[in-house]
Amino acid sequence: MKHNKKRNTAFLYECLIRELTKAIVQENKSKQTKVKGLLREFFSKGKPLKQELNIYRSLMETKEVDENFSRRLLHESKIDFTKLDRKEVFNEQTTLINKINKALGGNAFGNFVPNYKDLATLGLFFQNDNLNAKKRIMLESKVVSFLTKKQQTKTEMKPIESLEFKMYVKRFNETYENSLLREQKELLSNFIVSFSDNGLGLKSYLNDEIGRLKEAVATEIENTDSIALKENFEKVKSKLQDYAKTPLNSQIVEEVFYIQDLLAEVKRNVS
After folding, report:
1. Helices and strands in the chain, H and E counts
2. Does residue 188 have a pLDDT over 90?
């Protein structure tokens, strides 16, 4: 069962979000404008691809449901999927693919999407009309299996194939070699490696790095005369303290990344 990722609306959306993130990190205003324009054009409320994306999201965001509910949800979601004008969706996908190639380049489709396997399984499930009964049932069972997983299991770092891992590391090094702070490179490097060591190295790194950030934030609170800045740093301090109570996930990595940038920016402005 071969999956065409460029015909998976949720994958196209995730690629754009990752291109936008890279553009923000690199402070590439032109690229940010291009990506935001594509997101508005194709994923605004009422747009065909937005409607299809919502169907994917309704399933991807469903957690801890029993098997009977999962199968009912899949059945109803498939009905919603087929109700969309499939020709219109296909044409919109084609236009978006062409515009991504022109505005961002074909490498945009090579972005690493952590939940790609689940998105691909859903894509195959929705577009399985040409498969035989056995394969359709196998796909449905596969989707049901991840819908019924516990939330804690879903947030664990999944290992990835070694070739995929090496390719992603290569793209990471080429993209971010000169644009990130040293600590941001270390954070993202540990995040990448976490997919092959179940997050052990990342947990160790974050334990030390969050401790360092807490001390840096406390220093800024003590030294700043700005009430507004002090209040903002108090919020950052509270967030850093909350990480000890939260299971490790990609959102924490993203937030730590921007806290690192915030502290560096404050230091640049002071000096």
Report:
1. 13, 0
2. no
